[in-house]
């Protein structure tokens, strides 16, 4: 299929203006980037480009209440969920309170042992006993209506900082959650730690002189005057005016400060004469401290903030961008806090499998840099034990599963201690304990998955109609329900619920998972009355339920899925560039290294994939002790290797044809100091892939 004309033209523009390889440009366009400016923002994302926390409903009220507690020395209670997202949020909030000068000891709680999901009454009573007057819930709380009501009854104010789907009834609290139906925050998919980070940033920015002041940025250009209104790092509006102008027409009465650039001095004089005293030249306002060698120009500021001014068609947009960058950079506490906490934000965001798009991608992109240079002694020791890798893949496959292990076994205190401890000797013991626990988890998970996969594949015991597997098993620990449900959902391409039938319990726990973009949670919510507690995300949720309600829940959910648009398993490879066989020679180490601009790759920001048809196989052999892996040698000048993990049998059949179609990613194989590009085969497609226009 030939790419549309608009796509070809945009690819050509990206190659020209951003000096990109045509294949890189094609991959960017197929990610939905519609202009050179969007592509540049994707390649070089700035923290100042994240959404203002004050766009989130309840944020201003939350900042006021938290600042009062800090100023008055109130005892603050923090309740966090027990997983990596929740406890990294707890550590982020702890850092904020230290930096903000909170004087009293804070009281911290999280689910332990066999505690139910979310805030519990035992913790509420404990907070009251400890003299807490402000309770903050992290990565939890939005569905804990009764527990919050009890806290209010005991005289505590409650600030709910959550990212889970809210129910129809909301808790009596200050709520900040981008998924609130009445919240207009531009990005709904922040992790729990991401929402906590935004709250902390709001507290620190609210201490700056520019907080709650509306700035009018006025630019004279091309015979017209452009005006942007900015308040609390939000561009509220941008307008272009022509004809006779005065202070009233440009909205001066509605602002606290006017910054101008390129205006006629007579017009500036008229503004001052109209009583507009808070007026200053844009460059004078943002000028660095006294002692600079010379006054910086607009281009100097663009260079300082890595802004490609040639990609902007209007100067007012350049001025607004510089102003936002300067607001962020000028707040030393905000910069220090971000540098010291983005490593934690990254861990929680990746561990909770949040989409690495929009704001999450910016936070994680900078957070991976922060992780590589982390000052946290425990994280530093853990990275060293894992070879020092700090890509999103390293976090997703090594670090996050390791750190999530204590919570899966009801040992949340261990992970909380890991984050809050600074003594290296103590941290070594904590890491050793988690290591032993993690090895047990891997063995237990592998054994359980193998058994349950076979039971689901060969029998009807776990089937719930045509649309779902509903697994009830006494051998599954509470903490492994989600992992097992996720693996089974991926394997069978169906929604899966796994319930831990703990012996002797009237109330048991379980998890639901769905692969792809199927909103499983919304299909279960209508039956919430059958559960003791339930909460989560569209593709992942947890619950507790009475044993005698399990069969009712199974029937109801299965019935609700009968008409669900959940067909055969998606191939999961939606984005790829097309490369002809003669273009394979262009896969140099330099080209493969250039693919790093797509980092961090992960959920909904998948690694770049390539489709090549008619590749000739010059050689094939099987690899590995179990002879389950395969290697092609692709014919051509480069003689590039193509590796298929667990694909030996499929590759052997394909090799008989002499020529193959491959869907693959690219990586660097490093061996004895030599670096060589290699293909990592994702699929050997026979049909179903419609390639676009080949770029090479």
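Q: What amino acid sequence fits the structure above?
A:
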């Amino acid at each position: 299929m030939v790419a549309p004309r608009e796509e070809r033209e945009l690819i050509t523009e990206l190659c020209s203006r951003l000096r990109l390889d045509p294949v890189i440009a094609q991959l960017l366009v197929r990610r939905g980037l519609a202009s050179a400016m969007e592509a540049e923002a994707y390649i070089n994302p700035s923290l100042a480009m994240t959404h203002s926390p004050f766009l989130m409903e309840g944020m201003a009220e939350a900042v006021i209440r938290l600042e009062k507690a800090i100023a008055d020395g109130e005892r603050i209670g923090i309740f966090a969920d027990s997983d990596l997202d929740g406890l990294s949020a707890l550590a982020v909030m702890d850092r904020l309170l230290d930096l903000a000068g909170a004087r009293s000891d804070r009281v911290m709680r999280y689910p332990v042992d066999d505690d139910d999901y979310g805030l519990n009454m035992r913790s509420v009573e404990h907070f009251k006993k400890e003299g807490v007057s402000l309770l903050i819930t992290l990565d939890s709380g939005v569905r804990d209506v009764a527990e919050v009501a009890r806290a209010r009854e005991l005289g505590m104010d409650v600030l709910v900082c959550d990212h889970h789907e809210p129910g129809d009834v909301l808790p009596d609290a200050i709520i900040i959650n981008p998924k609130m139906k009445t919240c207009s925050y531009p990005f709904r998919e922040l992790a729990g730690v991401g929402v906590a980070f935004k709250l902390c940033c709001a507290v620190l920015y609210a201490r700056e002189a520019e907080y709650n002041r509306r700035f009018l940025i006025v630019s004279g250009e091309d015979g017209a005057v452009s005006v942007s209104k900015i308040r609390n790092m939000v561009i509220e509006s941008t307008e272009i005016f022509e004809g006779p102008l005065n202070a009233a027409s440009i909205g001066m009465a509605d602002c606290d400060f006017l910054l101008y650039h390129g205006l006629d001095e007579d017009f500036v004089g008229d503004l001052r004469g109209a009583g507009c005293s808070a007026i200053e030249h844009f460059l004078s306002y943002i000028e660095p401290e006294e002692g600079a060698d010379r006054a910086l120009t607009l281009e100097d500021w663009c260079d300082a903030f890595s802004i490609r001014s040639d990609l902007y068609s209007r100067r007012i947009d350049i001025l607004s961008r510089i102003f936002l960058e300067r607001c962020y950079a000028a707040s030393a506490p905000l910069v220090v806090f971000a540098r010291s906490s983005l490593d934690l934000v990254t861990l929680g965001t990746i561990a909770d499998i949040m989409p690495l798009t929009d704001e999450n991608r910016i936070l994680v992109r900078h957070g991976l840099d922060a992780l590589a240079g982390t000052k946290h002694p425990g994280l530093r020791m853990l990275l060293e034990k894992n070879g020092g890798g700090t890509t999103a893949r390293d976090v997703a496959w090594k670090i996050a599963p390791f750190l999530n292990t204590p919570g899966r076994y009801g040992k949340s205190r261990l992970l909380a201690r890991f984050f809050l401890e600074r003594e290296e000797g103590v941290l070594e013991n904590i890491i050793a304990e988690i290591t032993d626990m993690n090895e047990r988890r891997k063995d237990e998970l592998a054994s359980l998955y193998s058994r349950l996969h076979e039971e689901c594949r060969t029998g009807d015991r776990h089937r719930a109609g045509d649309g779902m597997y509903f697994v009830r098993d006494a051998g599954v620990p509470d903490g492994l329900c989600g992992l097992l449900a996720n693996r089974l959902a991926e394997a069978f391409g169906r929604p899966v619920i796994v319930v831990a039938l703990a012996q002797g319990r009237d109330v048991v726990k379980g998890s639901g998972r769905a692969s792809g973009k199927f909103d499983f949670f919304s299909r279960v919510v209508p039956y919430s009355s059958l559960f003791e507690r339930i909460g989560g995300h569209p593709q992942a949720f947890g619950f507790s339920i009475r044993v005698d309600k399990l069969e009712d829940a199974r029937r109801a959910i299965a019935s609700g899925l009968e008409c669900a648009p959940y067909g055969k398993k998606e191939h999961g490879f939606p984005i790829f560039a097309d490369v002809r066989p003669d273009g394979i020679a262009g896969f140099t180490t330099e080209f493969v290294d250039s693919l790093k601009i797509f980092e961090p790759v992960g959920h909904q920001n998948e690694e770049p994939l390539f489709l090549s048809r008619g590749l000739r196989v010059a050689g094939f052999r099987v690899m590995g002790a179990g002879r389950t892996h395969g290697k092609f040698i692709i014919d051509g000048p480069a003689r590039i290797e193509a590796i298929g993990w667990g694909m030996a049998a499929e590759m052997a059949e394909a090799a008989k044809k002499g020529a193959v179609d491959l869907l693959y990613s690219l990586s660097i194989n490093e061996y004895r100091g030599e670096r060589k590009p290699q293909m990592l085969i994702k699929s050997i497609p026979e049909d179903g892939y419609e390639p676009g226009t080949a770029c090479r």
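Q: And what stands out in the fold?
A: Residues 567-572, 691-696 have pLDDT under 50 and may be disordered.
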